[in-house]
Amino acid sequence: MTPRKQIAKTIKDYNHFLLTSHINPDGDAIGSMLGLGHLLNRMGKTFTFYNQSGLPERFSWLNLPAKMHTRIPLQEYEWAIILDCGDGDRLGENLGTFLDTDKSINIDHHYGNPEFGRYNWVEPHRSSVGEMIALLAQDLGMELNGDMAKSLYLAMVTDTGSFSYSNTGAETFSIASEIIKGGLDLDSFNSHLYQQWSLNKVHLHGLAMKHANLYCQDRVGLIKIPAELMQQTGTNPEDCEGVVNYVRSIKGVKVAISLREDSENKIKMSLRSWGEVDVNAIAHSLGGGGHHNAAGGTFYMSMQEAEGLVLEKIEQHLDSGPEDRNWAQVT
Ligand SMILES: [Mn+2]
Question: Which pLDDT value is given to residue 331?
């Protein structure tokens, strides 16, 4: 039996679930979790939500089918379903020791997922885990509508950069089409998703953009957010989401980098690319990971040292020969 079928059967056969996703959750982590919660609700199952970082403010307009727990201990469960976690560490240190991997289901779309669960449905070509939950809903005979569909649409639209990244497949569009047929109000949805900024956030992005720069014969764009920039503008790390896309938009740029100072000597890196350049491999060589065109990681060093190191790695990668060779390594 395929993992996908095994998971559908397990959901039918059991009643009590724990649903969780990665720390600092993005739209896919939240959307897939909420979508699966709504799905379980329709089947009359009980479940608990857990995310160590809680629900980000920018997604607070969604209808939660259950309370989002941020603390252990949690209620007893028969199966834990872990969503969008490229490895077990992404669950956060608290849940790591609480979970019984023998009662865990791992649904993910990251390359190199170590398949830490009893059942592992890992498909790196999928746009998002939300897309996979939509397929599961269809396998279980459900229409893609209501709050379930809205949550899954959020997962797909955020993980594909509004259906623009190379992970957007034909099936992504056909699921989106089913969701629109199911009655999703796009205008209302988009105003909730995109009208979330504060004036402070606009100022933060403006200042960061002003100091963006190009390296490696203008093939690499870099944007930095030192902690003092957030203090100066009264913003927080959540407000930095997406800054990497400004340098990704510059003509001729093959790799876009953002570096954000999380705390002293802790720098969060995001990498984005177009086409063949494999930023997952670059992130991996620096202790991080992700997807072919979108990856990230953390440096425990100063901003200046992190900048030097990431630029050096990218330069080596870009100069290491034809890019199609790098592409061949991951397919
Ligand atoms: Mn994802």
Answer: 27
Asked whether residue 135 carries a pLDDT value surpassing 60, the answer given is: yes
Rounded to the nearest angstrom, the distance between the alpha carbon of 217 and the centre of ligand 1 is: 32
Task: Name residue 143's beta-bridge partners.
Answer: none
Q: What's the CA dihedral at 64, 262, 82, 95 to 10 degrees?
A: -100
Q: Which amino acid belongs to residue 307?
A: E
Question: Which letter, b or e, does each residue of 196-229 get, where b requires 16 or more Cβ atoms within 10 Å of its Cβ?
Answer: beeeebebbbeebeeebeebbeebbbbbbbeeeb
- The rounded mean pLDDT for the chain is 93
> Rounded to an integer, what distance in angstroms lies between the CA atom of residue 116 and that of residue 86?
10
Supply the DSSP string of 94-119, one letter for each residue. HHHHH--GGGEEEEE--TT----SSE
Q: What is the pLDDT of residue 322?
A: 55
CA of 121 to the centre of ligand 1 (A): 14
Specify the pLDDT at position 330: 33
What's the mean pLDDT in 28-57? 97
Domain residues for the domain of 142 are 3-194
Ligand 1: centre distance to CA 206 (Å): 28
Shared domain check, 33 and 148: yes
Predicted TM-score (pTM) of the model is 0.89
- In the chain the first and final C-alpha atoms are separated, in Å, by 24
Structural domain count of the chain: 2
Q: Determine the distance separating the centroid of ligand 1 and the alpha carbon of 293, expressed in angstroms.
A: 12
Residues 149 and 254 grouped into a single domain: no
For residue 320, what pLDDT band results from cuts at 50, 70 and 90?
A: confident
Q: Same structural domain for residues 208 and 81?
A: no
Q: State whether 185 and 209 are in the same domain.
A: no
Ligand 1 centroid vs 272 CA: distance in angstroms?
A: 14
